[in-house]
């Protein structure tokens, strides 16, 4: 029996949404949790339903599909559906699984669904495997473009979301790590790292200064000069943790 795939459609054209739903009817394992005609509605749907799969148009009024992905902390498996081929390269920079040109060919759609099922199976295997935490002395390998680093976790000052990926700050370097911030957080040693806000995780050993900020927030200055605003909720947790 196939695993149920929870899907959301974000597409401004009603006709295109209906055509996509007709294609999906042949795949009973895909359940459409909702559909939206613009980015803001799509964002709300994704936050509410936490879908496994997102069918996403690129060209939409006011905000485009890329902007929606940048708004998300956790990005579902994404299949772009668009009438324009010039966005293909950019779509894969956003870690899209596939890119379907309208009108969508049935055989091409079938290949996309196969990719989705393989990707979900891989994610399930990773989720079921025991996850070991790193320590401050653990080293991680980072490759960004042609450059490579072997970095000790304790030498990293902070992590920051960039689209679907994470920028890593250490010494004078700031390469991209091709994992989400949530994936990174799961492996980090809690005694050294703290989630300051939705976008950033900091190494508390690198904090140089802490000052009260607006609306009950805190502002941290790191030893490398970076400034990090701690959200109001996380500020309470930070004070408790650091005994402030």
Automatic annotation (TrEMBL):
> What are the residue boundaries of the HTH LytTR-type domain, all occurrences included?
140-244
Per UniProt, the keywords (alphabetical) are: Phosphoprotein
Source organism's superkingdom?
Answer: Bacteria
Where are the 4-aspartylphosphate residues found in this chain?
Answer: 57
Q: Which Pfam families match?
A: LytTR (PF04397), Response_reg (PF00072)
Q: Using the record's annotation, list all stretches that form the Response regulatory domain.
A: 6-117
* Name of the protein in its database record: LytR/AlgR family response regulator transcription factor
Organism of this sequence:
Maribacter chungangensis
């Amino acid at each position: 029996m196939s695993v149920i795939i929870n899907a959301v459609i974000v597409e401004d054209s009603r006709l295109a949404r209906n055509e996509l739903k007709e294609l999906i009817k042949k795949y009973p394992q895909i359940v459409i949790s909702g559909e939206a005609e613009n980015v803001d509605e799509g964002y709300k749907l994704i936050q509410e339903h936490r879908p496994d799969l997102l069918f996403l148009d690129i060209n939409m009024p006011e905000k485009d599909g890329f902007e929606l992905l940048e708004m998300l902390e956790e990005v579902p498996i994404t299949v772009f559906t668009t009438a324009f081929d010039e966005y293909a390269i950019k779509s894969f920079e956003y870690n899209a699984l596939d890119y379907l040109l309208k009108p969508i060919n049935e055989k091409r759609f079938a290949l996309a669904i196969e990719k989705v099922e393989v990707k979900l199976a891989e994610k399930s295997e990773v989720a079921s495997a025991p996850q070991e935490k790193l320590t401050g002395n653990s080293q991680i390998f980072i490759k960004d473009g042609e450059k490579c680093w072997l970095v000790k976790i304790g030498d990293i000052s902070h992590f920051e979301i960039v689209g679907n990926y994470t920028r890593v700050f250490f010494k004078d370097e700031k390469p991209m790590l091709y994992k989400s911030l949530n994936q990174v957080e799961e492996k980090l040693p809690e005694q050294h790292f703290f989630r300051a806000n939705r976008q950033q995780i900091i190494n508390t050993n690198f904090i140089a200064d802490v000052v009260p900020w607006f609306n009950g927030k805190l502002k941290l200055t790191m030893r490398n000069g970076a400034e990090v605003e701690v959200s109001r909720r996380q500020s309470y947790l930070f004070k408790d943790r650091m005994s402030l």
